[in-house]
Amino acid sequence: MVVVLKAKTSDEVIAKMVERINKMGIRVQVTKGEHQTILGLIGDTKSVDESRLHDEDHVEKVLKIQEPYKLANRDFHPEDTIVEVKGHKIGGGNLTVMAGPCSVETEEQIIEVAKQVKLSGANILRGGAFKPRTSPYNFQGLGLEGLKMMKKASEITGLPIVTEVMSDEDVDIVAEYADILQIGARNMSNFSLLKKVGRTNKAILLKRGMSATVQELLMSAEYIMSEGNKNVILCERGIRTFETYTRNTLDLSLITAVKELSHLPIIIDPSHATGKWKMVEPMSKASIAAGADGLMIEVHNDPQNALCDGPQSLKPEKFHTLMETITKLHSVI
Amino acid sequence: MVVVLKAKTSDEVIAKMVERINKMGIRVQVTKGEHQTILGLIGDTKSVDESRLHDEDHVEKVLKIQEPYKLANRDFHPEDTIVEVKGHKIGGGNLTVMAGPCSVETEEQIIEVAKQVKLSGANILRGGAFKPRTSPYNFQGLGLEGLKMMKKASEITGLPIVTEVMSDEDVDIVAEYADILQIGARNMSNFSLLKKVGRTNKAILLKRGMSATVQELLMSAEYIMSEGNKNVILCERGIRTFETYTRNTLDLSLITAVKELSHLPIIIDPSHATGKWKMVEPMSKASIAAGADGLMIEVHNDPQNALCDGPQSLKPEKFHTLMETITKLHSVI
Amino acid sequence: MVVVLKAKTSDEVIAKMVERINKMGIRVQVTKGEHQTILGLIGDTKSVDESRLHDEDHVEKVLKIQEPYKLANRDFHPEDTIVEVKGHKIGGGNLTVMAGPCSVETEEQIIEVAKQVKLSGANILRGGAFKPRTSPYNFQGLGLEGLKMMKKASEITGLPIVTEVMSDEDVDIVAEYADILQIGARNMSNFSLLKKVGRTNKAILLKRGMSATVQELLMSAEYIMSEGNKNVILCERGIRTFETYTRNTLDLSLITAVKELSHLPIIIDPSHATGKWKMVEPMSKASIAAGADGLMIEVHNDPQNALCDGPQSLKPEKFHTLMETITKLHSVI
Amino acid sequence: MVVVLKAKTSDEVIAKMVERINKMGIRVQVTKGEHQTILGLIGDTKSVDESRLHDEDHVEKVLKIQEPYKLANRDFHPEDTIVEVKGHKIGGGNLTVMAGPCSVETEEQIIEVAKQVKLSGANILRGGAFKPRTSPYNFQGLGLEGLKMMKKASEITGLPIVTEVMSDEDVDIVAEYADILQIGARNMSNFSLLKKVGRTNKAILLKRGMSATVQELLMSAEYIMSEGNKNVILCERGIRTFETYTRNTLDLSLITAVKELSHLPIIIDPSHATGKWKMVEPMSKASIAAGADGLMIEVHNDPQNALCDGPQSLKPEKFHTLMETITKLHSVI
Question: At what angle do helices C214-225 and C253-261 cross, to 10 degrees?
Fold first, then answer.
């Protein structure tokens, strides 16, 4: 960190500031310019709360130099993290496709969809049992019953399960059934939940919040990792902008940003990002071309009667074609 | 809701659609135009999931007419809701000021600040015990110890307490000490937490999420209210935009929007919105002039050494002057 | 400016960089830390193009310290600028109200509205002759005829005129009729137009672009001022965010930001910001309470038949009441 | 358009509204529901100004059904538009790459870069002569001299020229030298300039504004086309969001949106969107994979000494590799 002092700050004040910062365990290098004095903070500034360096009377600006995350930081962990889930490797050049319905509706439905996406080459079965819905009057998911149905579909097909956990109180029960715990976009900054899943030994799929910067996403990963769980997979699912044609705006430059700043794998969810099934294929291809580690795609055998998010779900046949296209594309890239 | 069909949709298809919608308990009025047929849905469409009306082949657009919230809707509850907390009335023309430090640090600090803000005319003591911090390496609040310290300050001054609850698992313990449970911006769409506080009998201060629309804010209030707790106070604390000079962008037009759409009280938090103590006074005055029901303001007796958010905290003397100004302004407005 | 070098940058490279920067007329102070070397640029860095300091191999970050505008900067011009228009003073504690219809439609209409707003206490007549409309098929304004009608209304009432100029080629003709040239939000970064109006001796009302930061707004003012015209009045008219309930999001914290960073007057346009006449009064009051130098308000004698922006226009009677309210409020503040 | 009336609107009022709308040349279909009456507007509503349908007392909502652009609309022009520039075809499945420096600096530089990008397979030479710079103190481009230098480079290499025109007054002179006139993001809603270039017979490259929706972009194209010039090429160059890691956020879903809504070609500018040369390759690949008609890429033979935008410019060797990659990718897609 660099603290830029206001013009005419006295030597006495500077000495006091240096002393205060030293007490935080940080060394300070003072540079006096013609107009401004600059304090360079030397040491591990990760735990220094930036706001404590401000001082209305004497401080002009506080500038950060280092990224505030450490465990998620590629600088300290140069090689790609590979998260292994029941033998399937996520990250490190492998292509992972998570597919399935927005919500589990019936045992028949989830088993049917699981079989079909497996056949098309998907690696992981997605499906919602606990659903975060904008309205309390909409279908909220089948809960525990849904988990059991997914488990059955998983046993039949051999596909590992990824499903969302929305509450601290549900972490244990969801972890009993799922192979990957999903933290939804709305809970990306639910720090209490992040800590809790950080104490499980399950892989965690962390979705980017609707208005989260890449730095905040990595800080949320850091919350999980700082509790001991290093198996974090990041997921971009669209951010909120002024554009209303698509449900959200898919930010594919996040892929490159994450690859540069972190060693964690990143997958893309074009279904939620666009909200339109017709956009799923082009955005899937773009994701793979940009270097994503995989995709999360909604597939439903009867989108028109889906209990949620029908308009963005692919039918199994379309998903099959998509898989052929992206597998070919991935081998070229 | 209005469903606009694509040109050339056959009568047979239309009949099937009407049948499907009727099964949801909704009546349909069909209008055939020259180019387009429109289905008007009649009845309580609150629980109709919009996505279920889409149909790639036949539906052009689905347009909402009614707001999807009912309990929070002024149409169904024309008079202002007044939330009473230990005899103090929030809403309905009363001016409420919640003041105190970002976090409780020591017993002396919270008691000292409580006495001072009480003296200046504040009605409710704010203070953080469980703190949502972007970094896991920053101070996370004193937790239960902090609650106990606030309680003591409350007993001494008679000021009711508002404090944040971040986790389902903490709701009971926080409810034991606090008079108003705060749902932070990051948890506005933590539906599990909303339902849980909806089952308490405490007043709830619901902060707007960083990228939440007014409709989403009211839907979150609806989540709480649909569990039985009608004592919801809304709070604007700035939204996320491209502007970086202020921490967030304070959206004061929300006050008028809420007054038109809902009967719930709304207060403004200029401290978090701007991140700069110098902006707190002008934005407080603007809030009152725009018709807000109150303010939430950070006050710290030693901002420079505050464990969090010092730069946006007012010193007690400045808070005192602010209270004089806004009290006078409120009586004029 | 501060240039943070990457770890392990050699002394030779550092020496070359210093030499390059010196050639730009800037002195450099080198600080070597344990992990990082920092170059502090000393001198007038206003004309240093930040991008020229980047260097993929050796530079970690370039951090700005000084604001890049000079003529618009309060640091170099501490007292408030007061713009005088036909004897009326804008800025410096005076309250200015610009009122009138979105577009001039007929001579009768503009004269009628001018008389009424004058009677209610408005200081300046607004009205559009050249209109920036999203659709080429919508009414584009009366052009020169509109200017002539406004002139007549101005002569009758004595109110100076503010009207928009959209094109370099129209600057001369608009300057012949108007007292204040308005640069619309869509043209805030039309640098060619900014330079052109900077060469007139008319007052300029510069509206903030829909996604412009406060710094960019001040840089656009700098464009005008650097051509010799110091009579710039800034105007906030709402920014573009994800919120769709209001047409734009009115950012009142801009008032305080401008007051801190610049000496130029700032007025608020609540009509365009909200798009709803019911919000005009509360947002006008909030603006005055926050310290704005004035307001720009749409008034139409027959909003329902207005050729543009009827829904956000006040009827003359409502404007009259508003003027009474804000005049009283301004005297209290 | 559909106008939803408020509950209890009397038959008399409805009759008057219908009469008013009929006068605009539009027929109206009235549907009376239990709670609400809906007016369906039938006919060419393209020129109906939505705001004229609002009426505070009786209208609940005005809902648009048809898109407001016609010439740019795929519904009325199903096959892809192919813009031909000196024999090179843009759109319709062809891959177009526009490459060159941010600004023309010297004759040697532009000729050198032109030769190199030509050799690598670029189809069109880009370069700035009139530069829109945020600061009036930064390099503003060489103007006419720059155009002449580009012309020379064009004559030597045979590459057509694309360059920005910033002002109505410069349209003629720029059109004399350039083959494609670029409208920059800051001028996307400079309607006066759009009309002017719409009256030339040059191809127009229209960049999306920093906060423009897809509909607004197409309306700006409509402005150009409505003046007679149908040779419009759209260009996405990143939108403004809260994310600060990249300069802008590249919105690749725009490609699919444009392909669905319009017949115009769309190319992507990853250099300006990301501001980082390292992101140019992955985002170029993603653009092609998503179906873009081409790319616009900054190439500079000495990025570190470039007079603008060095950090986002590729060196000729890197551009060469990129061309190989995307040519291969394009043939696969």
Answer: 50
- Distance (Å, whole) CA C107 – CA C93: 34
Segments making up each domain of chain C, as ranges: 2-63, 74-332
A136 interface with B at CB cutoff 8 Å: yes
D246/A contact by beta carbon, under 8 A: yes
- Checking if the pLDDT of B32 tops 80, the result is no
Residue A143 confidence (pLDDT) above 90:
yes
Distance from CA of B1 to the nearest CA of C (A): 18
- Contact B252/C288, CB-based, under 8 Å? no
What are the tokens at A21? 């910062």
> In CATH, which of 3.40.50.880, 3.30.310.50, 3.20.20.70, 3.90.1150.10 is domain B74-332?
3.20.20.70
B288: nearest CB among C211, C287, C289: C289
**Which residue in chain D is spatially nearest to A291 when comparing CA positions?**
D282
Q: Is the CB of residue D282 less than 8 Å away from at least one CB of chain B?
A: no
Q: Cα separations (Å) of D59 from A260, B215, D17?
A: 53, 20, 10
Would you place residue D323 in the very low, low, confident or very high pLDDT band (cuts 50, 70, 90)? very high
Q: What is the pTM for the complete model shown?
A: 0.93
Q: Measured between CB atoms, does C18 come within 8 Å of chain B?
A: no
Query: Mapped to the 3 state alphabet, what secondary structure does A86-133 carry?
Result: CCEEECCCCCEEEEECCECCCHHHHHHHHHHHHHHCCCEEECECCCCC
Min Cα distance D269 → chain B (Å) is 21
- Percent of the residues in chain A that have a pLDDT greater than 70, as a whole number: 98
Q: Which of B130, B169, B308 sits opposite A168 (nearest CB)?
A: B169
Give which of A252, A266, A333 to mutate to test D binding, by max D Cβ within 10 Å.
A252
User: How much is the CA Rg of chain A, to the nearest whole Å?
Assistant: 23
Those of residues 155-184 in D touching chain C at CB distance below 8 A are: 166-170
Phi, psi of D181 (to 5 degrees): -95, 125
Measured distance CA(B214)–CA(C5) in Å, rounded: 45
C161 phi and psi, to 5 degrees?
-110, 135
Residue range D293-299: mean pLDDT, rounded: 97
Contact call for C279 and B328, based on CB within 8 A: no
Q: What is the pLDDT along chain C (333 residues), one digit of tens a residue?
A: 788 888 788 888 889 888 888 888 888 878 776 666 878 787 777 777 777 787 767 888 887 777 889 999 998 899 999 999 999 999 999 999 999 999 999 999 999 999 999 999 999 999 999 999 888 988 899 999 999 999 999 999 999 999 999 999 999 999 999 999 999 999 999 999 999 999 999 999 999 999 999 999 999 999 999 999 999 999 999 999 999 999 999 999 999 999 999 999 999 999 999 999 999 999 999 999 999 999 999 999 988 777 777 788 999 999 999 999 999 999 988
- On whether any CB of chain B is under 8 Å from the CB of C244, the answer is yes
Chain-chain contact of D256 with A239 (C-beta, under 8 angstroms): no
Chains in contact with D, counting 3 or more C-beta pairs less than 8 Å apart as contact: A, B, C
> Which subunits sit against A, judged by 3+ Cβ pairs under 8 A?
B, C, D
Task: Please check whether residue B244 touches C, CB under 8 A.
Answer: yes
Convert the pLDDT of each residue in A272-321 to its tens digit: 999 999 999 999 999 999 999 999 999 999 887 777 777 889 999 999 99
Residues A303, A164: Cα–Cα separation, whole Å: 21
The runs of H, that is alpha helices, within chain A are 11-23, 107-120, 144-157, 171-177, 191-198, 214-225, 253-261, 270-274, 277-289, 316-332
Residue A33: the pLDDT is 65
Judged by a CB distance cut-off of 8 A, whether residue C249 touches chain B is yes
Question: Any CB–CB contact under 8 A between A219 and chain D?
Answer: no
Look up the CATH architecture of domain A2-63: 2-Layer Sandwich (3.30)
**What is the residue whose two structure tokens read 């002759």?**
C129
Whether chain C has a CB inside 8 Å of the CB on B266: the answer is: no
